[in-house]
Amino acid sequence: MTGTDKRLSVVYACDNNFAPLLAASIKSLEINSAGSLIDVYIIDDGISSSGIQKLKQSVTSSDVALKFYPVKEVVGKIKLPYFNNARLPVTTFFRLFVHTFIPEGTERVLYLDSDMIVLGNIRELWDIDLGDHIVAAVQDPGIKTLGCSWGGGVRNWEELGYHSEDLYLNAGLLLINYKKWVEFDVCNKALDAAVKYQKYIVYGDQYCLNVVLANRWLPLDPEWNHLVDNDQPGAKLLHYIGNKPIYTNYSYSEKYRDIFFDYLKKTAYRDFKMVSGFTRQVRMVKRFFRKIFG
């Protein structure tokens, strides 16, 4: 379906605190997908001018083009939900808005969380046949089904007419069938779910996407979204959930932290110093009040 002459469209959403994570992720994408022409669309949630400059300086291949979109231009006047019980930052909701800046005629879009390191060639992922599915994603290894009692799942699955055994996706990586995403109006349906089912939300828009896309997504091999809280030989993409490797209180595999810093050292953030857990907490509190009081 997609020839080698086609440009790949990859989307990230990122704030200034996660800019070093994003730099390492893009560098891993650039290195391990060499030979592919890639447009990287970055939804910019307040990345500093120096951060933007460092991100641009980190890309050394002419095959990779960075395009920045300020979040106010992407989201417009829509007020995004913010819930005290949501375990993901509101930044994750930005992935719903790919339709506001991706060019018409685009066949598919790959969304990646900024806390990911790409170890495989995404051309392999890109060429997967999506069929009639709206997205392809990896089943969450912890919250495996909508009815999973651990971690939340979709607690109102029965009310929605689903089955407890229906698969639950991890939204950190989404290979999007762009036309079907727009036609199905995923963005507005997910935002409506966020308002209507607020009391059930645990993992932000991931809950909403599972509500909207239940039984409409294609399960991918788990190697394309490996959570670093356990070891998996042969993983093609690492997902640094929880405490990130840029923090001193990172608590997962040292091997995976070393992999992250191997890529970070190849970017303009090569002299980055790890952030203390206390500083991280202060940033989180500031972010909370900014979202509440504007």
Automatic annotation (TrEMBL):
SUPFAM superfamilies xref list: Nucleotide-diphospho-sugar transferases (SSF53448)
Molecular function GO labels: glycosyltransferase activity; metal ion binding
One Pfam match: Glyco_transf_8
Regions annotated as coiled coil: none
CDD domains documented for this protein: GT8_A4GalT_like
Keyword line: Glycosyltransferase, Metal-binding, Transferase
Descriptive protein name: Glycosyltransferase family 8 protein
Protein source organism: Mucilaginibacter straminoryzae
